[in-house]
Structure formats: C-alpha cells, structure tokens
C-alpha cells in the first residue's frame, strides 16, 4: 500500500510539473511575441468560418459565435499593450504555484503514509491482517 501511494505521488508530481512547465513555456512564448501577437489576434478576427460548421449549426448561430469571437479578440487586442509587460511575470508566478502544489502533494503523501502505518499498528494490535 505504501508503494502504491509512493507511485501515485510520483505520477501526480510528474503530471503537475509537466503541466506547469508547458504553461510557463507558453507564457514565455506569448511574452516574447509582443506586438506580433497583437497582429495575429487581428488576423484571427478576420478568419472566415469553415464551411463544415454549417452542417452542425444554422447560419445565424454560427455568425453569432463568430461575432463573439471577433469581439473577444478585439477586446484582447485593446488590452494587449498593458498585458504584454505583465506576461514576463507569469512564468515565475507559475513556478511559485508549482512549489506550493508540490508542498501540498508531499504533505498529503506524508499524511497518507502516517495513516497507513497507524492502520498496520492497529491491525497488529487487534490481530487482524491487512494485505500490503
């Protein structure tokens, strides 16, 4: 049981580290794009809807979705000059969040190991046998 807990903890730690690493890399890339990203956002706003969307929705709904996307992109492009300098801080903040998550994971694993040990001691005291 302790081995299963350790393997599960390592697996979750690897997933958490991979997620934060990818997120930090993406944030670093977005921060490096700066002005180019703003032009890319405006290109996305001009992108026509693919014809296969008409198979799943009616034209009015598809156009409403497109208008919402265009509005969202325009709003994002409007705040991009203020967001871009702050993007340099996103990757370090993500790694701080990673550290808090890892501390929490290790604490939970330690509590789990403590509870497993107490179950074993109680089982030995009562004469019951738990399988590992």
Automatic annotation (TrEMBL):
Transmembrane region(s): 89-116
Keywords: Membrane, Transmembrane, Transmembrane helix
The protein's name in its UniProt record: Transmembrane protein
Organism: Rhodoferax potami
């Amino acid at each position: 049981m302790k081995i299963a807990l350790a393997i599960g903890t390592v697996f979750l730690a690897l997933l958490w580290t991979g997620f934060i690493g990818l997120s930090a890399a993406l944030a670093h890339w977005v921060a490096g794009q700066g002005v180019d990203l703003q032009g890319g956002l405006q290109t996305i706003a001009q992108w026509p809807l693919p014809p296969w969307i008409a198979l799943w929705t009616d034209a009015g709904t598809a156009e409403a979705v497109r208008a919402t996307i265009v509005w969202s992109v325009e709003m994002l492009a409007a705040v991009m000059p203020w967001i871009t300098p702050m993007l340099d801080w996103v990757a370090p903040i993500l790694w701080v969040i990673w550290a808090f998550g890892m501390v929490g994971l290790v604490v939970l694993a330690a509590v789990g190991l403590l509870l497993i040990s107490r179950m074993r001691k109680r089982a030995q005291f009562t004469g019951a046998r738990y399988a590992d």
